[in-house]
Amino acid sequence: MEFINSLNFNHSFIKDIVRIDYSADMPLQCINDYGYSYIMFRFGDFEAYDYKNNPIEIPKIFVKGTGDFFNVKAYKNSTWISVELPNHSLHNITRLIAKKSRNKLIDLYDYVDASILDRLYYEIYENKTVEAITQTLDKHLYTFYSAWNCDLDSTVMVNYIYSRKGLLSVSELSEKFPYGERSIERMFSREVGSSPYRFIRLVRFNFIIRELEKAEYTKFEDLIERYNYYDHSHFEKDFKKFLGQSITTYKNDFNPLLSSALKRAYCKI
């Protein structure tokens, strides 16, 4: 498996780009949620299963927002290109209620002219570097960027949650921003795809799991305390919620896809 990305990636709209080429069949691997939206390109044979182990149909180009973890099995000579976008992009592209679209791989052909996507799909496959992929995306989709990247009411709150590493409460959001908790709840359901409480937990988990992956902490207890977990069992609950497995299983599991993803910078506001 070749994992192609750029540590110094910078773009006015796109947060990150990853290309994964599979030179051999790979077993099921867990992919967790980061709270961003994505446009993804599938080339070759894959199997995908949601957090309840139900099979998911994979369009050749699809958009996905925040949701639960899912598992992917890749076959030899397949390629996966992932284009990470701001959280608000899913709602801007589809105008769907984001929470009702969670865990769905939404066919981008329903929202962009097929002639554009057909040319993009076949051209981008030949791009072997992040720079080339970016140039191809800009060439075919640039006219959509302004609408897809339009800030929503939730955008500033989402960015604030990232900046705080998820170390805050929903009540703190209503104190800092001019919205009541019920308004924030409705806003997140429509635009973000998650309750504000779950999104805060998700962001916090993504920060702490990267520190766990680096293994640079002195004591595990100090790490979970720094991220406001009450104790080990409290952290274990988030592990099972966002990765579907125990901490022990995670440490013993063979998942190069997840390990490679966790090496990338997480907060990209």
Could you please describe the fold and organization of this structure?
The chain is of the alpha+beta class and 269 residues long. The chain folds into two domains: 2-148, Jelly Rolls (Sandwich), CATH 2.60.120; 155-262, Orthogonal Bundle (Arc Repressor Mutant, subunit A), CATH 1.10.10.60. 43% of the residues lie in helices and 16% in strands. The chain has eleven helices and ten strands. The strands form two sheets. The protein has a six-stranded antiparallel sheet, with helices on one face. A four-stranded antiparallel sheet has the order 3-8-5-6, covered by helices on one side. Helix 2 runs antiparallel to helix 3 (130-148). It starts with a strand and ends in a 7-residue tail after the last helix. The mean pLDDT is 93. This is AraC-type DNA-binding protein. Keywords: DNA-binding. One of its GO terms (molecular function) is sequence-specific DNA binding. Residues 152-253 form the HTH araC/xylS-type domain.
- Report Rg: 18 Å
CATH top level label of the largest domain: Mainly Beta
Mean pLDDT: 93
Task: Look at the structure and name the CATH superfamily of the largest domain.
Answer: Jelly Rolls
* Total count of strands: 10
Q: How many domains would you count in the coordinates?
A: 2
Low-confidence stretches: none
Number of helices: 11
Please state how the strands of the largest beta sheet are arranged side by side. Answer: 1-2-9-4-7-10
Which architecture of the largest domain per CATH?
Sandwich
List the helices and strands in order.
EEEEEEEEEHEHHHHHHHHHH
Helix content estimate: 40-55%
What profile does the largest beta sheet have? Answer: 6 strands, antiparallel
